[in-house]
Structure formats: structure tokens, C-alpha cells
């Protein structure tokens, strides 16, 4: 094994003096590990100059002690055996720094998450493992070196992907904080799911009424660069300096600005709508859940932002009638092509939202087989005054007003069959209560039947809302619907359910059934998250950095989460998280610079044969070959290097030094484990 | 459960203790069921989907959800002595629809197996056993049918154990291995004399 | 396992990446998922960092098994480090065969930050397999070739 | 005629011993479609999954395994025409193939009669073979029709154990399947949809024997749903369902005083009719409910 010497240390490394601090974490660790045994053992280890233990090492006294002992014992390195470095490494690095030590002289031994908590009934085994963990950490600490984080300037701009209520709120907050914000939306208009809703629970204020002002603000905001019909195509760089490529899909329509840029004075789309009527092609309007028509050149609805028409190329026949109708404004360009736009931002917020899962896969409920079985989103459009029926709820089969309407909760949620979703979709209970209220209010004599397993009304004023709806006359039946049968003649739908509280099966003929279908991440979420290196949980929702303490962050520095893309959320929660994410995303930008962990690669030139194998291995093009006093050697562009070490793992000559994960350090850990302890 | 020893047996029954007491639960019962049925019966969350689609529920007091509950709580006696246990037509609708991906039908079959170990089993089931023991068929051939087969140009007996009775020995060996025939005879005799 | 020597406990080295598998292992802890304690973890930023020599060193040092665990393909925090690691592990496996070591002693798995249960399962599997295989011939105390090393 | 595919024909009980027409129709119609159904000598009851499964699943496994071994010795896959048999023979074959502990247990018992389950064959319901394009397929059936059943409305009863539990079968939707309807429409008839199509006939699980009125009440509900949409006949692929619908109507009349006269056909009997077999060749006169009104419509 090639024994590399760091290119940074010219002087011989001093004899290490390591301090070991063992944490009880109350009984979290001490409960299943014999602390004294570990302590006594640590004293016997080479290079260990001081050993101590404490109930809560992360507490102030614990940190102060570390600080004082560094000085008192002339420590060259510090090992804390406690929880996971992913939780408290920053804490103890700070403590080491306060003690006058370079923070990167600190090493952590994880004896909680990966020991005491997973070996609770094997005290002996856990204690042995803890001893080894300390030994391994000490071995590394003895070889750690001073490192100095590189601080890089942060681009004074942010990006928000997805312009639903969460994305809009985040963008507005950032913009109001004086940060230029690119707001990327794949649809032709901002507003997202919320703009499809009629009323909102539990306050019952009209969704459009409270949302459209926000949409207008977004459209007007100085600091917001709005890009609709756009998708993230590629991402490079790191916190402070993300280079993002956006695909702006050809809409076939020029905004006034774009027209101006093309020298068409006073031209561009004004949203006058002259083009629509002349278009010969009719298609279903996705915004109306395909229950209303639109033309091949269209807007979703009158309140869209930006108020620009869009051409649906899949159905456009390029007859040119719209071009004529548009006339002097010359807003329509049937030859328009997608364009790729490059932007540089310091931080990014993902707010890609949710969609309804294909509920027709739960065949027992007959969605798409039975006319009068619809989803909640379809219900929202049918009950909405601006919807396809002007807010008059009708059954799809015959346009009649339904009087007995069933609401099937947990339709595909809390489902372990592999067809539905194992999780609770979180807002179905509440909007179904709202739907019940809406029909009682709008249709005199109409009776809602709510088939539920549990009513989860956990939010502020939610339980009170439940109380109100029950009082208004909604029928609550505690049972999950097993199947639905359609009467071939009347098209009425009969629901089969057990009233589990009565212990009695029920056969209830209804005019219409609304499925509160489970939700899932939007189609593009997976592609987008991979571009930003964000992980997801098994069910596809984006993974937060810490479920409790960092719910907006991700494991990619500078990338944050807002709204339902992180898990099903109602409007208040989405907006709240959006504001959290916006504040988190603005911090590095306001600081103006971020410190990057100095884990970059370095070339040990006397060992480098200049073979260049590593150059192609680097996913970030951070390596290159250069001539240096007559020899070809590799050179690292530190700003580009993210410290993955793929080059170091390959270099045949061991000529690459990975800061903080150097070959001698890792080998020392391996040896310490296998050769160090009693054999 | 606390027993009341009032002198009047009618009152005693009328005022029978309806409390659930922990000692009525037998955790082994739940385990036994899961072993036989190969489904995580203890994961039932009582949504009622099973009963709602059950063809027997609307025409009897049979509630498969309640049997699932008994499986969860280990209410062995209550489950095995309930005559409703034998109303399941094994149509598997509940199994196909259970959101917890359990197999209530197989839980019922497991309970029936456990009941049968206590000789709790309807006579008609045992008569099928007797028929198969003697003829190899649960629904044996008869002369009317033999004539009919002949008329159709078929052999009077199908090429099963009816045509090759020498195979019946093997069947009897299998059933005797489990002593099922004797048990069937004994139980039927007890019930019908 | 009866044939395994008295007092032998498997020495298993776990080389895991910081972003997925180490986080997954932490998650298993948070959820108190119990698994055998026979593994010792060395954390690297990415499995791409792993020099085949590290694994060979571990085996010559007498490790009974080595577990390498990274992100799922397509989820690598550094885009493609795990692909490169996986390729190298194939190489190492063939090396192990050549020196007469059962290549089941080296296992590469992919455990995401949300797969605590999977991590516990993986460790359990590796421990079981190691028990099946018994001490490595190079095991400092129990291996039949210990004099060699 | 393409090359003949040979299967061991597992008869079960009710087809050969109550509806022999269904047995002979299956053999004759299949032969015309390239399937040779060979006698499986010495086969017995499958055994009845309801009765035996309820008493002791282990005995059910062992008894079914004996039938499977007979076919293994013939080196032929099994084809059968009864859903109850399908549950026993298909499911036990599947379980024993994939569960070593179970197989060893069963082979312990089979040793006593010098048999061993090897797991060398597969089990098919004749209906799925007829529907499979690679074996027969709807087209080939349509071509084989000489007397189209035009103008008749037929209600399809799938029965339960053919397709459920979904996860242990391989036949797709158990809520709204259409494939047997396709087989029926290939004969020129109209397959009508009716309420609760997938509901059980009521006979299974030993309930027919345990509580006849209870099981008939289920049958009665299904018959009403079929009448509601004007069905001229019921077709099924399970002689036990056939018995429940056919004899069941007599019992329903006795017990509930309701008379239906709804003809009941095993699909292969219908196929036989369409292929030009005479009612007497099909033994339709053995049905409890007269098939005459239906025959008048087509012949």
C-alpha cells in the first residue's frame, strides 16, 4: 500500500495527542453500552492523551470541557463517541475550534444510531463494537490535518421549480427579500392545483379569490423572472453557483416583450382572445379535468398568469387562421422552436407538487367504467362557479342534479396491496368534509354520505369543521367501500360498505360517487430531483435533510423543498413550508458567501505519472493534465471538485490525496479495526 | 372471567359477565392462525371492506371482520365455537380487496382447521370424506348417470377411481395416515347415533 | 454454524457512502431496528472513493467479510460514483476468487437514505452468510492460513 | 389441422358423474381446436377444497398431490373444466412447487403409496387454454362455429376459484373481466353485463351442504340480476356452479316458491352446440332445467 504524505504538510507531523470524549446521551447510549469499559479501553489506545465521559457531551458544559481539555492536554485531535456525525459533527467541530484546534482535527465515533439503538439487547456486543468504533476514530484522528474551508461567493439569485401555491409563495418571499428569483413552471399558467379548487377548508373562502391576487403579484413582481411552459433540462455547479439550463417550450405565441425584441413594435399577445374562436381544432381542457373543451390555441381560464395564449402542437394543424385573426399584433409564430436558457443561481427551491394517482387501477370502484364515479378534483371543477358547468353540480351520465352523493375516503390511500399507496394522503378527509358542506349548501335536500375509516381532522379549526359538517346533516358511515355497482339502466351507483360500528353490511344506491383518490408526486418530480441530486423516500416523495430539524433542506447544499413534493400537504402547510424554504434559501444569498467543506482532491505530483486516467473519471471535469517543470501531471480545479474521491479511488499510483479521506487515513481505520484490537 | 354463582340459572345466564377480560385472549391462537393461513392476520385494521363485499354477510349474522378481530385479539373459543364460521363460501372477494393485503378467507380456513381439531365440524363435510374414502369421489357415480353416459357413447364409468377402483387403496392409505376416516365415522355417529 | 471455531465472531468491515447508506443506517437506528453487532463502519463521502486495495487490505488484515454500500444507481450524490464502485467490486471479486477466497465474502449493496429497514436486513444477511462461510482463511486468530499473513 | 397439444384431462366429480355431457363436449370440441384431452386414469376427487381444506389443509395437499403425480407419471400438463378442481389442483401444485417444507411433508405421506411429487407439470383450466391465442384463441373458435348462437343473450358466471385470489392467479381483472364474454361472443351470442357479475354462486366453502337455503339465497340473487338484463341462459366453466344454478333452480322453487326456467350451460356445452353437436350428443336432456326455450332460439 503506497504510503502517501500530504502535499500540504511539509514538516513532519507531530506525535499525535488525542482526546476521547464518550457521551452517555442520557440512557440512549449508556443504557446499552458499558461506558466505563469503553472509557478504560480508550485509555489503552496508542496516541490517546486524555479520556473523559459525560452525560450529554453536546450540552454546553460538555462542549466547554472539550475546549478546556484541548488546552490542558495539548491535544492534537479530538474524538467524540456519541451520536451520528450527521447530527453533531458541526457542534463538536465548533467546540474543537474554540479550543484552538483546527475543526478538521475532529473525528466522531457513531455509537448511538449505529450501535446502542440497534443492539439494545446485546450489551456485550454493543460495548465491543463501541470500543472498536473509538479505536477506528482515534486511528483516523491521529492522521487528521489542518484544513481550511474554501469560501465561495454566492450568486445573488434563486430559482423556484414549480409555481403552485408553495412555489409562488417561496418566489414572492425571495423576491420581497430583494433576491432575483427565477420561477419555473411546466404548465402554461402559474397557480397549480390550488387554482383548480373551488373553496378551501376550513374557512370556506374561495380558492381563486385568495389565489389570483398572489398570481398577479407574481406576474408583476420586479424580482421574479417567470418562465412558464418551461422545464429544468440540466444542472451543474454547487451551492452558491448552480448553472441551470431551462428548456422553454415553444408556445407559438410571442409576449409583448418578445415581440418588441423581434422589432415588432406594439405587438405580441395581449390575451385578447381573437385567435381562439377561429381555431378549427377542439380538444379537452386539462385544467377542467377534460370536462370542457379548448382550442388548439388556448388559455386554461381567464385568470391565467401570464395572460398569453399557447399552441398545443400535438393538435395544431397549422391552418394559419389564428395568425390572420391576430393580425397586426403578429403575436403568433407557427414555426417557433424550443429554446434553452442558461441561468446562474445561488440556491434552489423545489416545489413540484402532487397529482392524483390512477384510481382506475382500483377496479372495484369502477372509475372510468361507471359514468357517475368521479374523482375529487373533477368534483372541484363541477362545483366551481368558473368551472365547465358554471358551478351547477351535475352527474356526467345525464346532466341531472345528484341528490344522494357518496364520498369514498382513503380511495387508494392507506393501501398495502401494491396498487394503491401505503401512506395517508392527508388532506382528503378535510376536503371531503368541505365537499359535503358544498352540496348541502348548493343543492337543497341533497344528502352527502361520507364513507371513512378514520376522520383525520388534525389542523387548526379542523375538528370544529368536522363538528359543523356533521351538524349540517352529512351522513358519516364508518367503513371502507368494498365495491361499487352501476345500474345499467339508471346509471345510479350502488355502494357496498359495512357500517363497522353497527356491524351491518350496507347497500346504498346513490346518484353519484366521489373518490377521494390518493395523491403521488408529479410525473416530472423524479427527473427533476435527480438533476439536483436530491433523494426520495420509497414512495417517491422528496427526502428532507432531517424529518424534524431540517424539513425544508435536502442533502444537496443549497437545494430546498416546499409544498407537497416533500409529502402530501394541505394549503396552510404548503405555504408555511414555502416560507421556511424561502428563508432558508435566502440565508446563503444574504451572507454573500458559503464555506465549502475542503474535501477536494490534490495531486501528489512526485507520484503522478500523468497517465490521465483520472481526468475522464471525474464527473465534474475538475481534473486536467498540465505541464510542470518538464513533466505532465494532473491538476485539480478546486472550485469544481466536490470531493467524491472517485479519482482517488482509482489512481494506480496512489498519487491523489483526498482531503479528510486520504488513503493513509482510511487504511489506518481499516488496520485499526482488524489489526488494532485484541485478535 | 368472573363467574356469578347465583342460585337461579336463568338469572345467571341473563346477567352473564359481558366484560372482555385479558385472560380470554390467547396470543398463541393468533400465531397458530398466521402459521396455517400464511397471512399477517394481526395487521387487520377493521375497515370492513371484507364484510361489505361478502356474499354471506347480507343474509346471515356472519361478519368476517369480526372473525378477523377475534384473530387479532386471540379470542379462540369465541371464534371456533361460532356456527357462523361455516358460512364462508371461500369466494376470496375479501382477499382480493383487503387494503392491508391480508387474506381473510385463509384466516377462516385456518380457524376451521383449528375448530376441526376440536371435532367442531359440520356433518356434511365429514360425509364428503366418507364418500371419497369408499369411492374416491365426493360426488360418486350412480346407475342413472351410468345409463346416461352410455347413451352419450361414453364408458359407463369415467376413467377415474370409478373405472379403476384399485387406486382407491392409495386414497384410503392417505386418509388413514391422518386417521380422518375413523374421526369422521366417530363424530357422525356421535351426532346422528 | 456448529462447525465454526469456539469464540469466533465475524469481523465484518462496512465501507459506506455518507449520503445514502450511512444515512440509511442512521435511520435504522432512529427506528430502533435491531440487527447483529458484528459490523464496523468506515464512512467515505462516496463509494467511488473506494480503492480496490482498501478491500484487499481488509482481507489480508483478516476481515471475514466486507460490505460495500452506496446509493441506488441514478441516485448517487456525485452522479456516478456508485457505478464506478460497482465496476471495481466486480474486479475485486474476481481477484478474491483467484486467491482462493469465496467471493461471497465481499458484498456490494445499494441502500438509500430512506431504507433503514433494508440496511438492517442487508447487515443481517451479510452476517448470516459470513457465519455460513466461517472465518476467513486469513483471519488472524481463526483462519487456517493465519501463519501466512 | 395444426399439431395436437396433449393434456391429461382431470375430470373431478360433478362433470363425469352429473353432467357427462360437459365431459364429452369438452373432449370433442377441444379435439376440433387442436387439443387432445387424454384420460387421467385413477384420478379421484380433487379433493373438494371447501370440505377438505376446512378440515385439514394438509390432507387436502396430500390428496391433490396424488392426482398431480398421476399426471406427472403421464408426463402431461393437466387440463380441467371445474373451478373447484382448479383451486385444488392448480393451487396445490403451485404451493408444493414453491414451498419445500410443504413438499417434503406431502412426500412423506405419498411415500406410503410409492409416489413422489416432483413438480414437473403445470395445471390449466380448459377455458384459459381456449382463450390463449398461442393455444387456441377466440379467432380459431369463431372459425369452428357451424351454428352461430345469434340472437341469444347469455349471462357469464365466472365463478370464484378460477381467478381469485388475484395475487395467486394470472388472469388479470377479478372485478370486471371480459375474456369469457369474448369466448361467448365468438359463438355468435351476445354476452350481457349484469349487476354483481363476479359474485359467488353460493355453493362454495361447504355452504351448500351446511345450509342449503343460505347458499340458494345467494344463487337466487344472481339469477334475479341476470333476469333483470334479459338473459336467455347462464354459462359457466365450473360444473359445481352449474349444479348450483341448474339443480338450484329446482330447489329454489321448492324452498322459495320462485320459478325461473333459466337454462344453464357449461361453456363447452355451448361450444358444442355452436360447433353443430346435437342436444342429445351433449346430454342437455340431463339438465334439471330444460334447455328447450334456448335451443328453439338457435336451432
The CATH C-level class name of the largest domain in chain A: Alpha Beta
Strand order of the largest sheet of chain A: 8-7-6-16-27
CATH superfamily of the largest domain in chain A: FAD/NAD(P)-binding domain
**Greatest interface by residues involved:** B-D, 63 and 66 residues
Strand content of chain D: 5-15%
- Distance between the ends of chain A: 22 Å
Overall domain count of chain A? 5
Helix content of chain D: 40-55%
Number of structural units classed as domains of chain D = 2
Number of distinct helices of chain A: 17
Q: Would you count the extended β strands of chain A for me? A: 32
The profile of the biggest β sheet of chain D is:
4 strands, parallel
The value of Rg of chain A in angstroms is 31 Å
Principal-axis shape of chain A: globular
* Overall pLDDT confidence of chain D: 96
CATH architecture identity of the largest domain in chain A:
3-Layer(bba) Sandwich
Shape of chain D: globular
Brief write-up:
The complex is a heterotetramer of chains A (679), B (193), C (149) and D (299). Chain A is an alpha/beta fold and 679 residues long.
Task: Provide the fold topology.
The complex is a heterotetramer of chains A (679), B (193), C (149) and D (299).
Chain A: E1 18-23, H1 35-43, E2 48-54, H2 60-72, E3 77-82, H3 85-98, E4 106-110, H4 112-116, H5 123-143, E5 150-153, E6 157-161, H6 165-176, E7 180-184, H7 207-220, E8 224-227, E9 230-238, E10 241-248, H8 256-261, H9 275-278, E11 282-284, E12 293-295, E13 297-298, E14 310-311, H10 321-326, E15 339-345, E16 347-350, E17 354-356, E18 373-375, H11 376-383, E19 404-411, H12 428-442, E20 447-452, H13 462-472, E21 475-478, E22 483-486, E23 493-499, E24 504-510, E25 512-517, E26 519-521, H14 525-531, E27 559-561, H15 571-591, E28 593-596, E29 601-603, H16 613-617, E30 623-628, E31 631-636, E32 656-658, H17 663-676
Parallel strand pairs in A: 1-2, 1-3, 3-4, 6-7, 6-16, 7-8, 16-27, 18-25, 19-20, 19-25, 20-21
Antiparallel strand pairs in A: 5-28, 9-10, 10-15, 11-12, 13-14, 17-26, 22-23, 23-24, 29-32, 30-31
Chain C: E1 12-17, H1 21-30, E2 39-44, H2 52-60, E3 65-70, H3 81-98, E4 106-110, H4 116-133
Parallel strand pairs in C: 1-2, 1-3, 3-4
Chain D: E1 5-10, H1 14-18, H2 20-32, E2 35-39, H3 49-55, H4 57-74, E3 78-80, H5 83-98, H6 100-111, E4 123-125, H7 126-131, H8 138-144, E5 153-157, H9 179-185, E6 190-192, H10 207-210, H11 212-228, E7 233-236, H12 239-256, E8 264-266, H13 267-274, H14 292-298
Helix pairs in contact in D: 2-13, 3-4, 4-5, 4-6, 5-6, 11-12
List its salient traits.
heterotetramer, B: 193 residues, mainly alpha, Fumarate Reductase Iron-sulfur Protein, Chain B, domain 2, 2 domains, C: 149 residues, 37% helix
